Amino acid sequence: MLSGRRLTGRAAQAINSGMAAEALIPNSVAEAVELFGDGQGVTVFAGGTTLMPEIAAGRLKPVRTLLLHRSGLDELRVDGDVVRIGATVPVAVLADGDDGLLARFAREIGDLEVRAVATVGGNLCASAGVGAQRGDLGAPLIALGARVRSDGKGGARTEPVEDFLAGDRSGRLVLEIEYDKPSGAWSAQTLRRRHAHSYSVANVAICVDGDGLRVGVSGIGSSAVRARTVEQSRNAEDIVKDVDPVDDAVASAAYRAKMLVVLTRRALDEVGKA
Amino acid sequence: MRLTVNGREHEITSAPLTALLHVLRDELEITSPKAGCQQGGCGTCTVLVDGEPRRSCLTPVVIVDGAAITTLEGLGEAEELSPVQAAFHNKYAAQCGFCTPGMVVAATALIERKGGAVDRDDVLEALGGHYCRCTGYVKIVDAVMAASRGDVEPVADLPSPGEGEPDVLVKGSPA
Predict the structure, then answer these.
(1) Domains of chain B listed by start with CATH number
(2) pLDDT tens by residue, B6-21
(3) Which of A23, A53, A196 shows the shortest C-beta gap to B62?
(4) Strands B2-5 and B68-70
């Protein structure tokens, strides 16, 4: 049955599961954007590592699912000094990749099989899980000054990753993440429990850019944040002015706040800007 | 949707978002991939998708439409264990056996990928997402390293069904 089909011809394959649920499978970026529309009622499915457990546990019952595995969003390109990461590039590609800062964080995510299918876009967009924070890659992407290219409600948009994360993400489909190759020193500091599937206690990433610094923090709340106070003061103690850590099953807010100061100090020391 | 599982083709009728795990277990009655945590966190549902280890509980069947799937049943048989299976037997690397299907499949993929002897760090990386709650990991890691070196004793004494007991039918095995 193909009652879910919205595009003509072979433009997109839409399969009706017979359970009043639709699986939409676009074959290009343009089709993905069209099928996504304003995102209303659409569950975007990239690697599935956060959605499948929700479905298995009965917490998520998707009605219209947009599966991105054939949309051509899985390309990582280097155009001169600009690196462009498609939204569905697997985390494993970054873990094995050239960018030391992204690789350092990507290697900490899940395990071999999870990294092979988990996507960069999914990692960026994942909301907090049950008892743990997600989205580790937010910290290095903020530090790299990455920009998110997305489409959906209100049209195409490219914006700094921290603005994308802080804004209203409903109705947005991430297509690509781009950043200029870093030229300065960087530091990656991550704290987690010893466990292959442990989520973060806290992550701090710093990139030196000319005379300035960019500081990204993740794993401490529902999304990654940019630590602008620390960027100016270069004082690790100021990190708690920039972030508001949460309590969860992995760590308490108080512990996170203490460790964030330690991680930030180490990162500042490492980039030689303390 | 179609899947080739252990060399046999199957037409799949489950809903598109059904986990490959449940297609294998419930639709095709191939039961070596175990429904452990079903959160992608224990490893026992691991199968090979076009030769790559994947969590079948995290994989909606529609994403692997047309792929070749290999489960434990496709690696060896009671009369002729695969090198990794034989090494697990030699080294006492299985106890209750619940994690073993995923461990053996992932270890087989690792040895294939490396094309020869693997070291301890390779094994820890490849099996880092596979949990064993009884044997412990020392014997499992030893078994995988031994299999990768070809240091495997043939297994000749596997118990066969006794008088009046039925043969064990392993569905999904190559004919």
Answers:
(1) 2-74 (3.10.20.30), 83-149 (1.10.150.120)
(2) 999 999 999 999 999 9
(3) A23
(4) parallel
